[in-house]
Design brief:
Layout lengths: L2 E6 L3 H12 L4 E7 L2 H10 L5 E4 L8 H11 L4 E6 L4 H10 L3 E4 L4 H12 L7 H13 L12 H11 L4 H8 L3 H15 L4 H10 L3
Parallel strand pairs: 1-2, 1-3, 3-4, 4-5
Helix pairs in contact: 3-4, 7-8, 7-9, 7-10, 8-9
Length: 211
Amino acid sequence: MASIVGIVEDNKKIRDLIQRYLDMQDELKCPVAVDTVEEMLEYLEEHGHPDVILMDIQLPGMSGIKGIGLIKEKYPDIDIIMLTVYHDSHKIFNALRAGASGYLLKHTSLPEIKESILKLIDGGAPMSPQIARKVINHFQENAPKKNPESDLTPREHDIVNGLVDGLSYKMIADRYDISIDTVRAHIRNIYKKLHVNSKAEVIAKSLKGEI
């Protein structure tokens, strides 16, 4: 069954190009492509919600970063990938803190966008290489220290390590010989304990030494 993708992008040429490409893929369908967060919120209220939303940051009306919080609050199961020209650390970390599960730059090719969506659906946290490097450099420069008071269980630490290694939920389950439902249960507990909303935030906290 094809996964459903939505797009929020105010550049019509880019929006239409991505929508047409995704609709040509067997694994994906893109029934909704709009130019504002407000339009996407209206669509979500009237129709079934997509599995993944590709969203720009600078949009008419509400910003994409503010939109992440509103969408995740009402529809926590939707994963959001930022697709933007912005690569400054402030916007990257604001998007991740708001609940984005991935961050791609707009020069990302269409096949790479497709691959990133599939990776996200499979439990990954896709980022453009430049963005991943910025995330790692940021935490290295801030001299991370281990938090001895972390209340994650040993198995939850295993799950976090799997996420940091870029493994999907299925791959984590195979690594530790547990079911994928058990992995999902651990992920929910980790989110609750760390007060986060996305895999990207878990990875960021781990790299920063806060786990």
